[in-house]
Amino acid sequence: MADTSGGNPIHGVKAKGWLEKKWPLELLGSVPPLIVAATGAVRTWSDANYPTMAYWLIGGAVWLLGTSGLKIKHAAIADAKDSAARSHDGLVASLHVVHSIVAAAGGIDDAGQQSDKLRVTFHRVVPPLHTCDHIEQIVPYVGGNRDGAGRKFPVRSGITGRAVREGAAFIMDRKSGSFEDYKKELISEWGYTDSDVKGITSDRYAAMAVPIKSRDGHNVLGVVYLDSSEKNFFASPGIRDVVIKSCAGIAKYTGERYV
Fold first, then answer.
1. Does 163 share its domain with 198?
2. In a domain, 8, yes or no
3. What is the pLDDT of residue 74?
4. Where does residue 214 rank: exposed (0-12), middle (13-18), buried (19+ CB within 10 A)?
5. Is the peptide bond before 33 cis (omega within 30 degrees of 0)?
6. Are residues 94 and 77 part of one domain?
7. Are residue 26 and residue 142 in the same domain, yes or no?
8. pLDDT tens, 217-228?
9. Residues near 22 by Cβ (< 8 Å), separated by ≥ 6?
């Protein structure tokens, strides 16, 4: 049965459970000494024989309150960073496998993991699935400098957008070595706008996008995107077949992992 909810089980950033986070532990550890200090300050304040001690205890309670607040705040920030960076570790590992297999099939030394000859990443469809207008890159590139996670792109344009709209794999071979001509090509053939092409990478000469569908095959949940600095890298039927078969493994993984 097709999913009619419009949701995407592949999350952008996975929320951790309370016991997995740092800030609740910091809170639990900070409250008892703060209560003891505050109680001592109140009792000493009411005793006229120890006015100086009362001031010290009040100052200590205020100090504990401030430092505890800072520790909890920093723990919360660390939780947020850790969640964003690690929630898709399994998917990244799968993309490393795809990268190695495709690189070997295309004659690129696997040291390409450290270069940008071949890059692989994953974009999720931002829900609602049936009326989506954007995709989100949820993991860094495998290959190259490994940046890019968190960016969003319109579904109306590009090879990834077409893969989502039509539910099929597509390849793109750059026709010109001129960067300006390449931008015009993206506008005329791939639906880009003048604004869209301002942020593109100048040294990409070939790309391929493979849609990843839900288990029932009715909805596109995401797209595996590959690009290369090698001209016509995906033109060979053999390379395309390797990519498609490798991405079948990604589809199986997402079907089991994101439920």
1. yes
2. no
3. 76
4. buried
5. no
6. no
7. no
8. 989 999 999 999
9. 75, 76, 78, 79
CA dihedral for 135, 138, 139, 145, sign (positive or negative): positive
Q: Are 193 and 161 in contact (CB under 8 A)?
A: no
Q: What is the pLDDT confidence band of residue 63, given thresholds at 50, 70 and 90?
A: confident
Q: How far is CA 144 from CA 57, 99, 121, in A?
A: 56, 11, 11
- Specify the pTM: 0.73
Contact 99, 113 (CB under 8 A): yes
Residues 206 and 96 in one domain: yes
**Environment class of 211 (CB within 10 Å of its CB; exposed 0-12, middle 13-18, buried 19+):** buried
Residues 103 and 209 in one domain: yes
Which residues span the domain enclosing 192?
Answer: 88-257
Total domain count, the chain: 2
Q: Are residues 22 and 59 in the same domain?
A: yes
Q: Which residue has the tokens 């015009």?
A: 184
* 122, 250 contact by CB (below 8 A): yes
On whether residue 206 sits in a domain, the answer given is yes
